[in-house]
Batch of 3 targets.
Target 1
Amino acid sequence: MPLTANDPKRKTWLETPPNTDFPIQNIPFGVFLTRDDIITIGTRIGDYAIDLGALHQLGYFEGIELTDDLFLQDTLNDFISDGQKTWRLVRNRISDIFLIDNASLRDHSEHRKQVLFTMDEVEMQLPVLVGDYTDFYASKEHATNVGSLFRDPENALLPNWLRLPVGYHGRSSSIIPSGTPIRRPFGQTKPGEDGVPGFGPSKLIDFELEMAYITTDANQLGKRVSVKDAKDYIFGLVLFNDWSARDIQAWEYVPLGPFLGKSFASTISPWIVTLDALDGFRVDGPTQDPAPLPYLAQGGRENFDIKLEVAIQPENSEETVVATSNFKYMYWSMAQQLAHHTVNGCNVQSGDMMGSGTISGPTKEEYGSMLELTWRGQNPIKLKDGSQRKFINDNDTVVMRAHCENDEIRLGFGDCIGKVLPALPFAEEN
Ligand code: MN
């Protein structure tokens, strides 16, 4: 099916700000609460949130086979479960409805009132109920930096790293939409000389700059998804801040991997940008040497040129961009990750979320975590207000952004924002 919605020549009758992340070529999917406290599935063009439940009730999806209540839900899981053909029909139709010379909704003020909201009238929710969340570790630069910091620069990559996309199963209950503040977590830290572990608020709160992809039902238990077919099961992507407490992580992670140092919160941008919308931004990934085993071999362009940035904004102060990176640096592609995830027959379901792992690039400005940017605190970063950061302070807001751009169009993900609040003291909990 042609992706007519991607046509860069398309223009919309809605007013959109210049350089918006959400031109008519984007058409992302999300869930929001309206001014009347109604929860609905929607999309966004410019600074307008568009109620797909209302559009459906008013007949604008006529001719596409959809259940009546498909968009009147508080998650996208059922819509995603309907599969790629439905996503494409719906996304193309939305684009048609808002095309500059389509008068059907444009000139129907009553319908417009029911369908259109400005972004300040709605409250974004989590777009999916995340059943399972897996976090990969797929950036070679990041894995090399972390291996150098914690082990040995000569043998930074463990022997398995170049052979398979390393991952672990994360916690989905604490995945939160952009804007939700987080509490600095308490936890155990490495013992001092007396052998007793420390216990208190983490002193080393960090961000991890990641993208995450949302899947549809990909395979039944016992079956596999091939690298070649993987793209058909990836609905879309969000920006992802995998908050990490480095001191808690360092003490607890042996031998089974990350646990409470990661599970206290993970922030996602609320609009899922479809893989289809990103199709024009496919690029080749890095050369893989040694060549992957045949089940991980890929032919086509499976990486995506998505420009990334992270900023820190202290309270009552302006932000400072502390890192820029690019999703194209990923060593193991999403397609390889999904093929590997299912090669043992593990079933992947609608609404599952797969984090890329921290996306670090080759230069020091492109490191995707404070751990790397400050080299474990050795080289603090100076912010515009004159203060310094080794890690994230209380009341700092971390802002992540992502966009794609070529000669014809620019589209992006919107902000992925989280503020770190001071730890909750034990006494106040009762
Ligand atoms: Mn991570």
Note: The chain has two domains: 4-124, 133-421.
Target 2
Amino acid sequence: MDKKIEELLEKKAKAQLGGGESKIKAQHDKGKLTARERIELLVDEGSFEEIDIFVKHRAVDFGLDKQHYPGDGVVTGFAKIDGRPIALFSQDFTVFGGSLSEAHAEKIVKVMNMAMKVGIPVIGLNDSGGARIQEGVSSLGGYADIFLLNTLASGVIPQISVILGPCAGGAVYSPAITDFVFMAKNTSYMFVTGPNVVKTVTHEDVSFEDLGGAETHAMKSGVAHFIYDNEIETLLNVRKLLSYVPLNFMDKSPIKKFDKSLVKNQEELNSIVPDNPNKPYNMKEIISLLVDDNEFLEVHSNYAENIIVGFARVGGMAVGIVANQPEVLAGVLDINASVKGARFVRFCDAFNIPLLVLVDVPGFLPGTEQEWNGIIRHGAKLLFAFCEATVPKVTVITRKAYGGAYDVMNSKHIRGDFNFAWPSAEIAVMGPKGAVEIIFKKEISSAKDPEKELEKKLTSYVEKFANPYIAAERGYIDDVIVPAETKIKLINAFEMLKNKVDKNPKKKHDNIPL
Ligand code: HXC
């Protein structure tokens, strides 16, 4: 028996080396970690239980029958993060460039299926040259099996993709279906076709980094939700994200201990919004004051910065925050902001994460560029997402809430549970100047002094509409609150809503305007 155990341990030790010492060195020389080193950084120490370490590919063409590496280029198994279970796969670039064979795909499918059965998140660490070219269509089939499972698992368990190397061809579509994409700067790439094909087809000269690097996807395409300077920071932030997220759609986010009696009035909040309604301010200052320990994990921080989305805790309870950012484009809703907001709201709703919505929005962005590219269709996504969300939903209007954007940003009318406004709130169909120029057009143009008449009408409009009280009189606003007291109001609201149950009508699935 001892000999057999020895043999087993030898086999396992060999498998640990993946493609071998020289390939590991090459990986390190590129500034990348190995598949196993990454797992060590990601999960709780000693918690990783590997499966399928002995799996081999079954290909025979192109000399593959003579090249076998136990595990076949992907390390799979189960582990814990902060004591909570997860499933994972980590592609091993040292074995055939981490390329995906039929057997490699089967290993991923196996952990995904198990994760769905037991209701735990799946984290995929991607570092792969794509379909294993020598296996042809079997490899394509393997990808399709993964795409299908990604889709079936969507909304059942959280799925997180971490891109830590090349990710090319159809291979990008698995991460794209998952809930969050992390990338590390300078070593990870995602594109449908690489720079060489781009050059042939469109004659563009573009580098790997510019075409599909982390910054490109964080700022331009919005494909990456989180990017960090290196792999270590990237992996540690995956752990952070998971601390806000439930294990599955029937679970709730972990609650942290919180002593409510320590919450004090925050006088700073009374003076953040400038008296001049046209002056910008930074909504992130408000967020930072309202959340526990000033900790806010922002999602898509470099994309469509006119809307802010991310996770935090309020009174120990995890919440998803959606907020307009008056400092960027006056917080207007445009196509990218709408899509960014909608996807985030739907994730939170799918996984029982309550929503906190901070509103200072002048409306939707006008112009041909936006109209021709479909602001109607895309803006409708955000509206749809808020309308269908049944999680606890709390809104605070800090300043402007104009027009359709007032309705969209989790208004009472679309099932906001608690809708608060600060005294600085202005809730109306449109901003004062535009409104007065339309409704008093004739009176202004026929007045002896049109400028003076415009001023007069503006003053009366502002007095009448640029405040929260008309909405509060109708019950569209539940309370107008002193900004300094917002934090305690929020904690009380989310506590009250803890066991909220709301349902949408029975259907096969909805038809969000994609
Ligand atoms: C088999 C592969 C491979 C692949 C890389 N390798 N990609 N083997 N199938 N797809 C092997 C290489 O032969 C090499 O083996 C080792 O991995 C390391 O690769 P290098 O090229 O030396 O590394 P590097 O210079 O870092 O370049 C990495 C790379 C490049 C950018 C990923 O290898 C590359 O362009 N590969 C092909 C990418 C690709 O076109 N894939 C198919 C996409 S289509 P040795 O033994 O020499 O060390 C696709 C379809 C999916 O994926 C469709 C789903 C619907």
Note: The two ends are 61 Å apart (CA to CA).
Target 3
Amino acid sequence: MDQKEKVIVIDFGGQYNELVARRVRECNVYCEIYSYREDIEKIKAMNPKGIILTGGPNSVYEEGAATCSPELFNLGIPVLGLCYGAQLMMYVLGGTVEKAEEREYGKTELTIDEPGSLVFSGVSEKSIVWMSHNDYITKTAAGFRTIAHTANCPYAAVEDTDRKLFGFQFHPEVLHSQYGSQMLKNFVLNVCGCSGDWRMDDFAESTIRQIREKVGDGKALCALSGGVDSSVAAVLMSKAIGRNLTCVFVDHGLLRKDEGDLVSRVFGPDGPYDLNFVRVDASERFFNDLNGVIEPEKKRKIIGEDFIRVFEQEAKKIGKVDYLVQGTIYPDVVESGLGGESAKIKSHHNVGGLPDYVDFKEIIEPLRYLFKDEVRAVGRHLGIPDELVMRQPFPGPGLGIRIIGEVTPDKVKIVQEADAIFREEMSRAGLNRTAGQYFAALTNMRSVGVMGDERTYDYAIALRAVNTVDFMTADIVEIPYEVLKTVTSRIINEVSHVNRVLYDITSKPPGTIDLMIKRETQIASASLLQARLQKRGGRNL
Ligand code: GLN
């Protein structure tokens, strides 16, 4: 993206590369992630104000380890190396890096030796930093001095003020590092001299302008799901090109209670935006195709396929369009291995899966460089209602994967009602602000109960509430019994065919956040987790 002031993060495959970029953006400085394989000429041409080298799984002295050109350190651009990045900076410039007897993992006390260093402004002499390494710097390269140490690391932080090069053995991007954000802020503002004027409102206005210039009188088509990303993308497009945009909203009948109507209210003819809105009620088709299907992976496939077919039919009615709008966001790009280096294992539906059946010239992804919270900030700036902008993540196949066994309209109704009650009570208790994701699911279990002196043989609803930072692991939310009891009695009383409510307290792993996640995602997160555990010397799962 064209942005006059930017910092480049060079990714060596570390787990936290995205976090590094986020922390930089939190300083209102725009930042992009590139793989270490990126041509240095391209990096130079971007004219960055600063460069940050991330951590990584390799050892610098190994054959074939990820590396960088020594020229990177002679561009006159400030460089900060983090963990592997710091080791590499030393190694490339003539220092030495060796394997330590023991790996160092977790919180460590850092002692600052040079409090006057620009990167330590506002940082206490002693503080906690987070470490994850096995190698360490045993000799610094010429021109560097030590600015901080820990018990095991004589060179926990080094600097060469003349060349504006800095290296941290620890990870400032991880929240466990007490002054980590402050140190990164010091680097981007004090060392790189960024002004910190990147704002979401500017982003919205300039993006609208750019779309208008690019699309001109052309026509664009957007598949609107009512999720945060596609909603924000649609509004940006509508502000830029008005009625030359058509949004197709495929209602598969598997949305949460009243959600389809909310989307129609916001984007339909009575809503505030100027665009063509097409709502397709395709629920009958979906239910027909799902009839009798119980295998979760098969259900997913059917829902995905049907979705594409329905969208295709509508697109055909519109005829040729010039642009197809997608709500791809930055993590999708980075996690697909397109921006950075990490997590190539995670496949994502937003990137790469182009619908080849729609006749269009080009794809527009107005949110391609934004993180989720930034997308939400743009959404709010654009005046999109909080109900849409602050929505919890909701899977594409919708309630279809929150119903175990066969999906029928009756079961969808049950889960919709139960879920609405659960969400309402969570909000009433103020837990909606602290719980990341929470929902009701319909187990396929029926059991005997008694209600009003009558025997019942009805379904059990499962409630689930989790918090997750990275979606790879999740902890359950400890909902107070009082709230659980209210939810339970309301569900039993208000939703017919439910006579039992269960609370799922399985963390992830071994559970998953939703009940039936995509098989590839499951394999990807399992292998990513396994890789992490192995790196930590942990037990395999
Ligand atoms: N692989 C290197 C080490 O073990 C760097 C680790 C990292 O960047 N987190 O020291």
Note: The two ends are 41 Å apart (CA to CA).
